[in-house]
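user: can you give me the structure for this one chain? tokens are fine.
assistant: on it. calling the predictor now.
[tool input]
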Amino acid sequence: MELGYIVSGLFVGFVVGLTGVGGGSLMTPILIFGFGLSPLRAVGTDLLFAALTKIGGVWSHWHHHTIQWHIVGFLALGSIPSTLITLQILKTFQYHDQQLTYVINLILGIALILTALALSLKGWLINTIKANNSSKVVLIIRHLRSNQDFIMISTIVTGWVLGFIVTMSSIGAGALGSVALLYLYPNLYMNQLAATDIAHAVPLTIIAGLGHWHLGSVDTHILFNLLLGSLPGVFLGSRLSISIPDRAIQITLSTLLMLIGIKFIL
């Protein structure tokens, strides 16, 4: 069984290194469908798995001064209270197994489908936001982005939504967060966007993961074995990503996540 967890960690780490996303989106379904963990236990274990695998990324981006800390702060103003409230909700309904399993599966399915759509539409969104034309959509986007109060409130609300979704499903901190930031802060370079998203995802997943650990829904033995596989997997995936077309990776991952999401809902 330990070998199975190590291989799963290797696979998910490889995908993360290859695409930059997909950690929670793939690991939680694998733990549920592949190893028979309860949804609550799978989510809790994956949250700490995600936090520990992303810490190195924050250190690297911090060293290169690409993290926009004021944006991280606005996101955290929403996500941290949301996470704490969601953990309290989970604690209240922790022993209502059937109802809680249904709710978590539903949120998992929705989060996976939204992640698949976010990956598919990210390229289109980039082109639309940066389009040099006067179409109605572009004009509305430009008008909203010129209002700093709108940007600040929207960032806090984005953090709130991410806090709830991530705590309930362990999914969304990467793909959903990056698409929201892309809309709200189109002048950021892509490395700044990724750095800011990761810098927010780490404390979010740590707080949510520790909350799940307090609830008893983290399996530390499984977590250790997943990390044994994921660390070399991330390295291998990042090396191979240079030789594989981004579009092919994007289509494959989006399709896979969409199918898994539909399975959770049905």
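assistant: here you go. The chain has one domain: 2-265. The chain has eleven helices and no strands.
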